[in-house]
Amino acid sequence: MKHTDVKELFSDAAKYVGHSVTVCGWVRTWRDSKSIAFIEINDGTSLKNLQIVIEKDKIPESEIKSALVVGCALQAEGLFVASERNGFEMSLRSVKVLGGCPQDYPLQKKHHTLEFLRTIPHLRPRTKYFEAVFAVRSALAFAIHKYFTAHGYKYVNTPIITGSDCEGAGEMFRVTTQPWNAACKTEQEYFDGDFFGAKAGLTVSGQLEGEVAAMGLGKIYTFGPTFRAEHSNTTRHAAEFWQIEPEVCFCDLHDIIEIGEDFIKSIIKDVLSSCPEELAYFDERIEKGLIEKLNAVISSDFAKVTYTEAVEILKKSGKDFKFPVEWGADLQTEHEKYLTEEYFKKPVFVTDYPADIKSFYMKLNPDGKTVAATDLLVPGIGEIIGCSEREADYEKLKAAMVKRNMPLENYTEYLDTRKYGSVPHSGFGLGFERMLMYVTGVQNIRDALLYPRTVGSL
Length: 458
Ligand code: 4AD
Ligand code: MG
Hints:
The chain is of the alpha+beta class and 458 residues long. The protein is 33% helix and 23% strand. It contains 15 helices and 16 strands. The chain has helices at residues 6-11, 13-16, 61-67, 114-118, 128-150, 187-192, 207-217, 253-274, 276-285, 290-299, 307-316, 333-343, 394-403, 412-419, 432-440; strands spanning 20-32, 36-42, 50-55, 73-83, 87-99, 154-155, 161-162, 174-175, 200-202, 219-227, 240-249, 303-306, 348-351, 373-378, 382-389, 425-431. Strand 1 (20-32) and strand 2 form a beta hairpin. Helix 5 packs across helix 8 (253-274) and helix 5 (128-150) crosses helix 9 (276-285). 35% of the residues are buried. It binds 4-amino-1,4-dioxobutan-2-aminium adenosine-5'-monophosphate (4AD) and magnesium ion. 4-amino-1,4-dioxobutan-2-aminium adenosine-5'-monophosphate is lined by residues 166-167, 205, 207, 228, 230, 237-238, 241, 243, 245, 383-388, 427-429, 431, 433-434, 445.
């Protein structure tokens, strides 16, 4: 269908002024008066609507009537002109309704609550808010690919169906083609008859396969969906979310922290320059001071603190936390909030967590109690990155797995990477939706995904 994107019209206006143009889009709003009518049309390419001016004596009445309908899809042709109030607008010459829209269209008003919009995920991309969210989501993904490509990383795709639970937290969704079989006497008998002849699930992380790839390709990153059957019903947890997982050989914890900080700053910088209109909108509507916050993040150093120091800071805070602060216990949301929002007031890498609360693959520190791991916590969200140097020593890695009662037979290939030419290596996982929330100010992960999957809601 020959037409011009609204974004193109606005960004290269001088080329189009005084010429006939055709645009296609959906009617957001309209106004009618005696001799003149106005339509605001949006085609999804720009946050801006194009105003279409209808001089009523020039267009057949029936055509006007069928076009003055919120939600209907139009193809409109007319003169593109400069206008004092709108910058540019179209003076209509002819209009064709591509898809009518009855009165029960739920997006009649200009403003709807996010809660209401969550009930109509199939229509909410037609609102300015979600147009902006998905524009930034797309730009952020591009920025991430650009960063790693520019730094010599290979993009690899790790399997989505897997037999290994990388995080060992038992949060895997099962993948099966088999109905319940009461005749099976053991779990093994049941899985033997299944599609893979083994227990299979959806990956919680591409890390283990990412490590395998890095052990030949040197530096890799994954960017794909990961799944967790977590029952945490929070604004930051989704059952299906996207993760970016770089894995870097010949790299210790110190090096990977440097990479992580540079990466986060670079992608923020990229989005600040590629999405000025969207970020200005979020700054005005969602998080006052958003752009200033992002500029501060890219121009100052992230804080670094050990877990042990963080526990001391929390103990000395004088705060009445709901969860007690104890060396050895995981940091809770309230603790992360205090550290990032009140104490450091900026992103902070918390390092060297107790081994017992972290995953099996993390490198044991010489103290024998903590691991060379770090979480990057940011104000307003909490953890956005989970990171560590990997245990490169075969025996130590095996011991950590045995300690956690992991079925070693499922991990022989992974252990082989430590047997054949093991190297110091590190990596991290960035939660894509959490990063998107951080750069846009979106408060709920359900508004960062096209179709959010959360516990109890498909
Ligand atoms: O800290 P996590 O569990 O780390 C890993 O999975 C490692 N294997 C990553 C690696 O080293 N390659 O998860 C990484 C990040 C978290 O920091 C968080 O941002 C995000 O993934 N995340 C979630 N995002 C949305 N919903 C959930 N349920 C999430 N769980 C983790
Ligand atoms: Mg984590």
